[in-house]
Specification:
54% helix, 12 strands, 10-stranded mixed beta sheet, 18 helices, two-stranded antiparallel sheet, TIM Barrel, alpha/beta
């Protein structure tokens, strides 16, 4: 009897202990769930950190290898290297790397804006819809306001990126004698450029280029283009003077680059005559006689134009153009076929007019004589149709995506971006994110809205940067440039900068009000 009572007592003790343990566990789980519930805005941040960490380790931090645009295969003789300060501010410039690094950034910008609007509206819907004190119309208005506000913030960011050159990757070759060239760029001598000669040299030099071609839009005076190249002859990178002309033959419009063809060619006399194939053949022969080179820009080209232009004397084609990233499979195949059969060169060019400082196209040449001027080596290789020494290198293969690829391009490009991160860039993400989460806690502790404070800070940085660059362009116009385009861009930039600063002021004015509130949760 005593043993039975002891056994029953022992069972009761174990049962009560189990109940206490389960109660404490339930309380702990509830506490964790409540903490997670209160910190729901941080979940996407940690999800993103974990995702890019997995992608970076999965690629063994070797995702920064560029590609040969002709074959689509990795160009293993080089690597893309981000400067130190670029890695430090990586989280801030990440959106530009995701969008501008896409196979077709124009499509990605549109798709990203649409997804951002839809995603922001969905988040606002979840946060606002169950608040019983608000009317139906007020909730709809707040959802749309938040969604459009997110798109406007993206627009400010893109304007900032376009006007303010952020650090960008450089192409670093294993062969120190190899030449890296950008054979299609512009300065303010063109009617639609916003970059001076000195700024062009500085940016190209920082991005690792050894040669740059200033192919100014005709009717830029050819003598002035030659004079600008002469002024930079002792500087780095080496400059190839050129012109970009537009001609029409049989209702087909072609843009041609004329590189270093000498001062005695009567361009003004010839350009109006280029209305048929015979005239174009005579013209290219004259350019070749002056040891110049003719390159066809890929703008609006189709596969049927390739053989025609080869027969008319064109020396090379742009198989990649950052300013015009559209590249159909048929056009790509026709260009590669022309190189294999006729020895014409295929180049990758930026067509840079001063917008952003992001480069992802390089023409790499193996020099025949490393001791010669690299600009001479480039021109001679194109003039002699020595295509085997020329490689068009890109950070991401250019192609025209399908409709499903266009729709989901932001997600595909985000995955690509994560796989290309290097250790310092990944560490920058972790340090910045954890620091901002800690700062958000401090801000919340003083009863302010962290989201509004952060948005105000971002808008202020964007606004100030856009304003300064806009004023710089206005002052550039004041000191004298051939065209009014920099002045117009500068004034528009100042307007965008003021709007961003106004947005920052509005956020600060309402700094104690939360932008969004979790369902059924009102901040203290």
């Amino acid at each position: 009897m005593d043993l039975s009572s002891a056994a029953i007592g022992h069972s009761k003790f174990r049962l009560s202990g189990a109940c206490r343990f389960m109660t404490r566990a339930a309380i702990s789980v509830r506490g964790c769930a409540l903490g997670l519930y209160k910190s729901w805005p941080y979940i996407p941040a940690f999800t993103w950190l974990i995702l890019i960490t997995i992608l970076s380790f999965a690629s063994s931090f070797n995702g920064n290898i560029p590609f040969d645009q002709r074959t689509g295969q990795p160009f293993v003789d080089a690597a893309l290297v981000m400067p130190f300060w670029g890695s430090v501010i990586e989280p801030f410039s990440a959106v530009s790397h995701i969008i501008l690094g896409a196979s077709n950034y124009q499509i990605t910008i549109i798709s990203s804006a649409c997804w951002l609007f839809a995603g922001s509206a969905a988040v606002a819907f979840v946060a606002q819809w169950r608040r019983p004190r608000q009317s139906y119309h007020v909730r709809i208005l707040r959802i749309l306001t938040f969604a459009w506000g997110s798109v406007i913030l993206l627009a400010w960011y893109l304007v900032f990126v376009l006007l303010v050159p952020l650090p960008s990757s450089s192409l670093v070759l294993k062969d120190p004698a190899a030449i890296v060239a950008d054979l299609h760029s512009h300065t303010v001598a063109s009617h639609d450029a916003i970059i001076s000669e000195q700024q062009s040299l500085a940016i190209h030099r920082d991005r690792g280029y050894g040669v740059v071609a200033w192919a100014e839009h005709y009717p830029a005076p050819w003598q002035s283009v030659i004079s600008a190249a002469d002024r930079a002859k002792d500087l780095s990178p080496k400059v190839i003077p050129g012109l970009e002309i537009s001609i029409s033959i049989d209702d087909r419009n072609y843009h041609l680059l004329l590189l270093r063809f000498g001062p005695d060619v009567p361009i003004e006399t010839w350009v109006p005559k280029l209305i048929d194939d015979r005239a174009l053949r005579d013209f290219t022969a004259m350019i070749h006689a002056a040891h110049g080179v003719v390159v066809a820009v890929n703008f609006k080209l189709n596969e049927k134009d390739i053989d025609r232009l080869v027969a008319d004397g064109v020396d090379a084609f742009e198989i990649a153009n950052l300013g015009h990233p559209w590249m159909s499979p048929a056009l790509h195949t026709a260009m590669v076929k022309a190189q294999n059969s006729h020895g014409v060169g295929l180049i990758a060019a930026s067509d840079w007019h001063g917008w952003s400082g992001f480069f992802r196209t390089w023409t790499v040449l193996t020099p025949a004589n490393p001791n010669r001027n690299p600009a001479d080596e480039i021109v001679d290789a194109l003039w002699g149709h020595d295509a085997k020494r020329i490689v068009p290198v890109v950070s991401q293969v250019f192609y025209t995506p399908s409709i499903p690829q266009s729709i989901f391009s932001p997600f595909a490009e985000a995955s690509r971006y994560g796989s290309q991160l290097q250790p310092l860039q990944l560490a920058s993400w972790w340090v910045w994110t954890l620091s901002l989460i800690w700062l958000a806690g401090r801000i919340r502790h003083v009863r302010l809205s962290p989201a509004r404070i952060f948005f105000a800070a971002i808008s202020s940085v964007l606004g100030v940067g856009i304003m300064f660059r806009g004023l710089e362009l206005v002052m550039m116009s004041y000191h004298g440039v051939p065209y009014a385009f920099p002045l117009k861009v500068g004034l528009v930039g100042c307007a965008f900068g003021l709007s961003a600063l106004f947005g920052a002021w509005w956020m600060v004015k309402n700094r104690a009000r939360a932008i969004l509130v979790a369902p059924d949760h009102t901040p203290a």
